[in-house]
TrEMBL record:
High-level lineage: Bacteria, Pseudomonadati, Bacteroidota, Flavobacteriia, Flavobacteriales
The encoding gene: priA
GO CC field: primosome complex
PANTHER family: PRIMOSOMAL PROTEIN N
The EC number(s) this enzyme carries: 5.6.2.4
Reaction catalyzed: Couples ATP hydrolysis with the unwinding of duplex DNA by translocating in the 3'-5' direction; ATP + H2O = ADP + phosphate + H(+)
Organism: Flavobacterium glycines
Homology family: Belongs to the helicase family. PriA subfamily.
Cofactor mode of binding and number, as noted: Binds 2 zinc ions per subunit.
Short name of any one Pfam family annotated for the protein: DEAD
Protein name: Replication restart protein PriA
């Protein structure tokens, strides 16, 4: 008897055993996909991870449905890495598998397929079976896999659908995503009927009397002769021939040209790569050498370089070294929106060796990059991506860069696996004996701590490139300004003067307002004080329905005070203000000026983010108001003033990392100012100009911030000294949830012998009709993480076996951010 061990793309911790024939047993290799039946009628794409002859004891092994691959498409290192993620982040291996694979590689019988509306479909390239499906999709908008089985009257259809996805004829329904629409560029080509020589003569006679059109066609031929078959965009054609797109349209209507769309960041690079142009400065060269020598002893190094010090150029030189040895390089970014800028920077240097991968790409593209990486193709020797690029089938990985390593977006929040891409990257690198470079102007406390204890190397760039000066920081005391009536709305006189001056000089301005979290705070309008929890060192949040302030970590609570504890003022508020309000006030203050806004609302739509960035770069916008997105590594050359509208709502965010994050965000936003010759200026409005964190930002004192925060982390039991696991429980029934969470808390508390906090209600205690409770576990350095997690898992299993708690949803967030 022969068996294969299979991971299913479901939230199941176990693998499943299926039976196979002897021939199949010898054919299947670890890392190949097999379609397998599951439950009554489901078929899933599973992953073979082992072959053996041990009959399962608890159930009768079913036969597999079919083998889907001829060669493994997942490597053994990947499987090892996924198993590590499942165990460290306490989730199901099936969750990791499902999260890691492009969904086109995970067809199941419920999958909906629809026609691909983008790109050109060449019907003559379709097989008969493919054509039948294609036709069916002209009649109805989507088909289930079951329907396809009906249409073709056969069972074995996954490979056919797969082919059609590869050909770009169909897409999977679930990937119709609105959040990311890549920029499409329109290209033009000659209709196939004119491709031959006779066709050409015919064409010229058709156009005899249409001079403008003829001119364009001739330009088209010229371009294609010099371009070596590179696609010709409508824009290029009209630019070169000096004509309008209306003429092009006329030619399309006449069926002389055809147009088609290609996503901009996927057009392959065609210029020459210019290896020798980049010359490192002395400081950069020194950093480069230091990183290399630190890699002789350490696996991981941190490049701590101030904003605009030229970290990217150091990365480029390092990448170059790994490429010459034939190794693959992975470049992780915190934000998809940053890829476009970086891709063009890297392509200018490495030409066609750069591939982009992220979860918002459609399936075809993701599968394409997946395969290129699997085949160790030159085209994907450098992969740039957000955190999911970590799951690609590398075989020869030599180097990983984690840029802006402090960014919290590297931690996945939902769904499982809730992994931290930086930490998971370090584990992945170890499997390949590859090196990891973390880079940031404001490193996370955890990473800096690791350099301090000698685990990671540390390399610094202390000055900006080309000796551009760090921006000058001006503090504005809001208390004083309100008292002396020097405020117009949320703008102090100092800020208004600063903006006026910058605009007068033709420079641009960025205004930053922190996105207010979902936790409302009680803030004194007179002195800016926000009440804190004495035990947890976080701000208390306001719970409206109970009219009280609570610590959402430990549950400490007080009645809502009527007077400020600090200044006895009576003017207390729970309302913050957002970017929209600032934009409105600006329109009143500077009616002649163009004002842009960059936040979640304005960047959601089609190309939202890029459009706004582009128009700001092109100086069509004078003042840009925005949230955190502004802080992320963008490079603008004409911004001389950055204003931070209110530093306090960052400082008092109810989160144990609030001061660290405030330092990072303010320093990063400030870093957008004065990136060319002229020294930039930053105006910070705050009620607390003497707050240590504000002073540290002003003095560019990272070490001061680090030391102070590290001490607090020790006292209040937080990372890097303690590891935190947050457990969330959810259920529709308030009482059942309450009972269940108290039960779980008590059992954890009695069995673990380490700090367990809660069960606590978040300020928003109900989402989509479900109530929420949270429990926080703090694991000290001296406890074994592995055995603590084992105990927790055991307790969760018994929780699950209590009948009345079974319906309560439990999620775990290890190293909760
Ligand atoms: P960081 O990532 O450290 O904030 P960047 O890598 O964006 O800094 O560099 C800041 C600016 O300086 C960029 O405009 C970059 O093109 C320029 N720059 C940095 N190093 C060099 C170099 N060696 N040669 C030319 N320009 C450089
Ligand atoms: Zn507390």
């Amino acid at each position: 008897m022969y068996f294969v061990e299979v991971i299913l793309p479901l939230a199941l911790a176990k693998t499943f055993t299926y039976s196979v024939s002897e021939a199949e047993y010898h054919y299947i290799q670890k890392g190949m996909r097999v379609a397998v039946p599951f439950g009554k009628s489901k078929i899933y794409t599973g992953l073979a991870i082992d072959l053996h002859q041990n009959k399962p004891t608890l159930y009768e092994a079913k036969e597999i449905h079919q083998i889907l691959d001829e060669k493994p498409i997942v490597t053994e290192n990947q499987i090892k890495h996924w198993q590590w993620i499942a165990s460290y982040y306490m989730c199901a291996i099936g969750d990791v598998y499902r999260g890691a694979m492009p969904s086109a590689l995970l067809l199941e019988n419920e999958t909906l397929i629809t026609k691909n509306t983008v790109g050109f479909i060449d019907e003559s390239q379709l097989t008969d079976e493919e054509f039948l499906i294609y036709q069916a999709l002209q009649q109805q908008s989507s088909l289930k896999v079951q329907d396809v089985i009906g249409i073709l009257n056969k069972k074995n259809i996954f490979p056919i659908i797969q082919k059609m996805i590869d050909k770009g004829v169909v897409v999977l329904h679930d990937e119709i995503q609105e959040s990311y629409k890549p920029k499409m560029v329109r290209y033009i080509r000659l209709h196939s009927k004119y491709e031959s020589n006779e066709g050409l003569n015919e064409l010229l006679s058709v156009l005899k009397n249409a001079n403008k059109q003829k001119e364009i066609v001739l330009t088209y031929f010229q371009l294609s002769a010099t371009n070596h078959k590179k696609p010709i965009s409508v824009k290029e054609l009209t630019d070169v021939s000096n004509s309008s797109s209306a003429v092009v349209k006329a030619l399309i209507d006449k069926e002389i040209f055809e147009d088609y769309l290609i996503q901009e960041d996927r057009v392959s690079f065609t210029g020459d790569s210019n290896d020798n142009l980049l010359q490192l400065s002395e400081a950069q060269q020194k950093a480069f050498d230091e990183i290399k020598s630190s890699f002789l002893e350490k696996e991981v190094s941190l490049l701590h370089g101030v904003t605009s010090s030229g970290k990217t150029e150091v990365y480029i030189k390092l990448i170059e070294e790994y490429l010459t040895t034939g190794k693959q390089v992975l470049y992780l970014l915190p934000e998809i929106a940053l890829t476009t800028q970086l891709v063009s920077r890297l392509q200018a240097y490495f030409g066609n060796k750069v591939a982009v991968f992220h979860s918002k790409y459609n399936n075809n593209e993701r599968v394409e990059v997946w395969n290129q990486v699997l085949q160790n193709s030159e085209k994907a020797q450098i992969v740039i991506g957000a955190r999911s690029a970590l799951f690609l089938p590398f075989s020869n990985l030599g180097f990983i860069i984690v840029d802006e390593e402090h960014e919290q977006t590297f931690k996945q929040v939902d769904p499982a696996p809730r992994y931290h891409a930086r930490d998971a990257a370090i584990v992945l690198a170890a499997f390949f004996k590859a090196k990891v470079l973390l880079g940031s102007a404001t490193p996370s406390l955890e990473s800096y701590y690791n350099t301090a204890i000698g685990k990671y190397g540390l390399v610094e760039l202390k000055n900006r490139y080309a000796n551009v000066r760090m921006p000058e920081i001006v503090l504005v005391d809001l208390k004083d300004k309100y008292f002396r009536k020097r405020m117009t709305g949320h703008f102090s006189d100092v800020l208004i003067d600063g903006i006026t001056e910058a605009l007068f000089l033709g420079e641009q301005v960025i205004l930053f307002q922190n996105r207010r979290g979902y936790s409302p705070l009680l803030e004194c309008m007179t002195c800016g004080h926000v009440p804190q929890c004495q035990q947890c060192d976080v701000s208390l949040t306001y719970h409206k329905h109970r009219n009280e302030l609570r610590c959402h970590y430990c549950g400490y609570s007080i009645a809502k005070p009527t007077r400020c504890h600090s200044c006895s003022g009576i003017d207390l508020t729970t309302k913050g203000f957002g970017t929209e309000q600032i934009q409105q006030e600006l329109i009143q203050l500077f009616p002649e000026r163009k004002i842009g806004r960059m936040d979640q609302d304005t960047t959601r739509g089609k190309f939202g983010f890029e459009k706004i960035i582009d128009s700001f770069k092109n100086r069509e916008i004078d003042i840009m108001v925005g949230t955190q997105m502004l802080a992320k590594g963008l490079d603008f050359d004409n911004v001389s003033l950055v204003g931070i509208m209110n530093a306090d709502n960052m400082l008092y965010h109810p989160d144990f990392r609030a001061f660290e994050r405030s330092y990072q965000t303010m320093t990063q936003v400030a870093g957008r100012a004065g990136r060319s010759e002229k020294q930039g200026k930053v105006i910070i409005q705050t009620y607390n100009p003497n707050h240590n964190t504000i002073q540290q930002v002003t003095n560019n004192d990272y070490i001061g911030m680090y030391k102070e925060q590290l001490y607090d982390r020790l006292i209040y039991k937080y990372p890097p000294y303690f590891r935190i696991i947050k457990i969330s429980l959810k259920h529709r029934d308030f009482n059942k949830l309450k009972e269940g969470s108290i039960w779980l808390y008590q059992v954890l508390f009695q069995n673990l012998g380490i700090p367990v906090l809660g069960p606590e209600e978040p300020a928003i205690n109900r989402i989509r009709n479900e109530y929420i409770r949270t429990i926080m576990i703090k694991i000290p350095q001296e406890s074994s993480i592995v055995s603590t997690k084992k105990t927790i898992q055991k307790i969760l299993n018994s929780f699950d076996s209590v009948a009345q708690f079974r319906a309560i949803k439990v999620t775990l967030n290890v190293d909760f951010y």
